[in-house]
């Protein structure tokens, strides 16, 4: 799931920077919380997930898929709701609660995958196989 995560990271980078430029141009910084989360949870974290999944091939790919979909369903719910709440529309608070909890579950799946499925010995074996193919 390295490449899908990297591609989504770049999409979030474009949106995050779009928010930043909008705030600069209007000198209205109400959305800075959403801007920071889009850039850090969207761009920076997803780029890291992408690099980790690409580099460590022994990690469980079906768990990585669950992580990817949960994360990418949670993020738009969370970020759109957060943006509306930051500009004063409190009816979007439930969206923040749903989105942030889904995001936290996605992170738990990622943590489980790295802590329990990533094995140094498997990585060494994979590297050896790759070297033998060259
Ligand atoms: C073209 C690129 C960017 C522009 C124009 C931009 C613009 C801004 C602006 C106008 C603010 C509000 C400053 C204030 O409150 O006075 C801000 C805050 C912030 N930005 Fe950006 N930004 C950009 C890229 C990024 C990136 C790449 C990241 C992280 C990876 C980032 C993370 C943050 C954080 C953490 C804050 C503070 C939020 C807070 O205080 O609640 N920004 N940015």
TrEMBL record:
Matching SUPFAM superfamilies: Cytochrome c oxidase subunit I-like
Transmembrane segments: 5-22, 34-56, 68-87, 93-115
Keywords tagged on the record: Membrane, Transmembrane, Transmembrane helix
InterPro entries referenced in this protein's UniProt entry, alphabetically: Cyt_c_oxase-like_su1_sf (IPR036927)
Protein's name in the database: Cytochrome c oxidase
Organism whose genome encodes this protein: Pontibacillus yanchengensis Y32
